[in-house]
Amino acid sequence: MTLLAVERIKLFTTRSPLWCTLAALAVTIGFAALLAGVDTENLPTIASTQFGMNFGLMVIMVMATLAITTEYRFGTIRATFQAVPNRSATLIAKTTVVALFAGIVGELAAFGAVGISKLIQSGADLSINTPFEWRATAGVGLVYALAAVISVAVGVMIRHSAGAVSLTLIYVLLVESLVALIPNVGDDIQKWMPFYVVNKFLTGDPDITNRPIQEGPPPSLSSLSPWWSLAYFAGFALIMLLAALFTANKRDA
């Protein structure tokens, strides 16, 4: 508990988490407000309110990456490891705090997007009843939390802020999309890419709103069921964390 308290103090005494949180909420809720206000011909759906979810996810992943790389940048990680020689325990505590915070931000963003859409378009049916609707909203926090674990792991392995942030964003924004362009096998590979798979958790089985494909998170054609998609993503996050712990214990701080 002491380690968790220490990491909580570290996280909330720096400016980047605050600004990243505000940015994530602004883009997620802002896009929902924009769609509800501009598209007056179609009432918003639960799925369309989450149009900005991926933009908020990028910001949260940057925040999670900086939470660890700034310690390496300013050398505070050395003092931390001297005070607590068990590096694994320290990094797990940091990962836990960052993931919990990311999950809370995800929930605020998702339900805030639904709320602002209902405020703008009062006639829209935005009640959350079906399993799909619950996953599309409450599930956002779970995805944000696991993505934060991956980001912290990348930060531990890379240690350099610019490099870690660049690698994370390039992978999520480009690699998983471009891999589908590989002849013959690209589509099959993409179906097992972690961020592509986890979109099945948010958008699959079934999206009863029949929304246009451009509204909301992109649908996933993964062969896994929604909850197995989340489990697959969680497994990938765990593997990344274990790799980061192994790396941190094998080299100098």
Automatic annotation (TrEMBL):
Record's keyword terms, sorted: Membrane, Transmembrane, Transmembrane helix
Keyword Transmembrane listed: yes
Residues that span the membrane, as ranges: 18-38, 50-70, 91-116, 136-158, 165-186, 227-248
Full protein name: ABC-2 type transport system permease protein
Lineage of origin: Bacteria, Bacillati, Actinomycetota, Actinomycetes, Pseudonocardiales
